[in-house]
Amino acid sequence: MEPFQLQEQPIPHLVIKSWQKLVPGLNVGFSTKKGGVSKGFYATMNLALHVNDQEEDVISNRKMLTNALGFSFDAWTSAEQVHGNHIEIISKEKRGKGRLSREDAIQDTDGMVTNEPNILLTSFYADCVPLFFLDPVKKVIGLAHAGWKGTQLKIAEKMIETFVFAFGSNREDIHVAIGPSIGQCCYEVDGKVIQPIQSTFSFIPEDIIFDKNNGHYDLDLKKLNQQILIHAGILPNHIEVSSYCTSCDHHLFFSHRKDKGKTGRMAAWIGLRKDES
Ligand SMILES: [Zn+2]
Q1: Is 38 within the bounds of a domain?
Q2: pLDDT (tens digit per residue) in 43-57
Q3: Strands 76-78 and 120-125, how do they pair?
Q4: If you average pLDDT over residues 81-104, what whole number do you get?
Q5: Which end of the chain is more exposed for a tag (fewer CB within 10 A), N or C?
Q6: Domain with 137 in it: what CATH number?
């Protein structure tokens, strides 16, 4: 079953409703390209500052979205993603970083983890794989950006280790969702991508890399991350995989491939809202 449900109002976005039942106050989801004020290539809900969109439009979009999710804009926290595997633990002091400018964002970071309420972790996508993490027992949340490089650098496994070693999570308690991203249907790559992946992972089931016998391959990044997570000790029934393809489902999403590089970014988010007493 598709873990992400489309919610049209007040701004079209996708949410994982089943996780809201695990932890009251949790909001976890993924934006669509609809409902914002950006123009041109970025029309209309571009949420990233690094793609040459008008800054004030991006900030307006971010404010509208946080408002729709019931968070204060001060909670929006983001990093400068570099296709690496560095993970930052987001303490209270880092709350709100990167919401207004790239310079202020958490630098060189593709994964964020926190156990603080009222922090909305966010990251940006146009085909790469968003990974959402939740330990409902220890109330720890995380978000990681995994393109082919982050996947090959095992950011998924590193996130699990951060939960375990920094927050005392038990692996069997952790839930992971693999979000909307480019599907194997639309993700053709060459040997430059396949060779490092094959030399890193010994356990790749055959269907993850479809060899077209012409130097090109169709790669299933969602399934590869699913396998990495199972090898990291996550229960298979705690891993949910979205079937949305950012290229096929072009009416909903920006796609770096489909839009030939000139496009906006969706945001993934996870945050635990708690009323201040
Ligand atoms: Zn597709």
Answers
A1: yes
A2: 999 999 999 999 999
A3: parallel
A4: 98
A5: C
A6: 3.60.140.10
